Amino acid sequence: MSHQAHQADQAQEPETPHLDFAGTTPYEDYVRADVLTHLQQPLSDDPGEMVFLVTTQVMELWFTVIVHEWETAAHALRSDDVPTAVAALKRSVRELEALNASWTPLAQLTPAQFNSYRSALGEGSGFQSAMYRRLEFLLGEKSASMLVPHRGAPRAHAELEKALHEPSLYDEVVRLLARRGYDIPDAVLHRDVSQRYEPSPEVEAAWTAVYSGDQNAELTRLGEALTNVAELVWRWRNDHLVATRRAMGSKTGTGGSAGVAWLEKRAQKNVFPELWTARSYV
Fold first, then answer.
1. What is the Cα–Cα distance from 87 to 89, expressed in whole angstroms?
2. What's the angle, vertex CA 256, arms to CA 267 and CA 266, rounded to 5?
3. Which of 52, 122, 174, 243 has the fewest CB atoms within 10 Å, i.e. the most exposed one?
4. What is the pLDDT of residue 208?
5. CA 102/CA 118 separation, integer angstroms
6. CB-hemisphere CA count at 13 Å for 72?
7. Are 128 and 255 in contact (CB under 8 A)?
8. Neighbouring residues of 221: CB distance < 8 A, sequence distance ≥ 6
9. Angle made by CA atoms 65, 68, 72, in degrees to the nearest 5
10. pLDDT tens string 144-196
């Protein structure tokens, strides 16, 4: 190899990355990986508990980012900024897909495998997740009683109480429809937002009109983004139901919940209900 070719070959080789830092690495400072990877404290000797614990913590992280996306969308809708809202909803669709995939490591648990560390949960149950409750509140699934488990955690309780009394994501959508000229009753627009959202025939009629007209492309895109979200929420609930049914049958759930019976009831409900029923009239 000639001297010139050798120099050219050396120039193409990647430079050695910077390895020497005075303190922690910039990556660690940003990601806090050392904190994340030392949060796992299994309470049993069963080797399968680690995947259950890590998967549950991963779910909490996905709840956090999805709540962020939906709050971004709600804020944008208040400002009539539909493109920003749709972009946030589309991101949340990809995040919901990743969240739903979190069931995969748990979906094949046999009752014996789950029972080997179930006692470590004590009275712990997923319905006690404060971040998941914020996610449900944004969907319009409001319930003041769900604040009760968090009275001993002031920050979580305050955040949930604030979310309880704020309009849900769907409330903001319905208010946008009214501002765009659709006939939404005052009883819907000024409802008590701390209560669970109930379907409205007028909102159904508004969505029927949106999907029936050619001049409503922006609102149709919003409706489809919301429908994608709703479908994946439904899939989340059904995957939860199936995983629980496989692991523990119809036994009482952790934390005293009704277990499969409660999950079956949840899986039968659609969020953003008029977006589904309106399709029958288009």
1. 5
2. 10
3. 122
4. 97
5. 19
6. 16
7. yes
8. 82, 86
9. 145
10. 999 999 999 999 999 999 999 999 999 999 999 999 999 999 999 999 999 99
Instruction: Quote the distance between the C-alpha of residue 18 and its chain's center.
Output: 38
pTM, 2 dp:
0.88
Sequence-distant (6+) residues with CB within 8 A of 228 are 89, 90, 93
Q: What is the 3-state secondary structure (H, E, C) of 210-260?
A: HHHCCCCHHHHHHHHHHHHHHHHHHHHHHHHHHHHHHHHCCCCCHHHCCCH
Round to whole Å and give the CA distance between 249 and 228.
30
Q: Give, to the nearest 10 degrees, the angle between helix 154-164 and helix 130-138.
A: 10
Q: Tell me the residue type at 91.
A: R
User: How many angstroms separate the CA atoms of 98 and 66, rounded?
Assistant: 11
Residue matched to tokens 């690495």: 25
C-alpha span between 146 and 144 (Å, rounded):
5
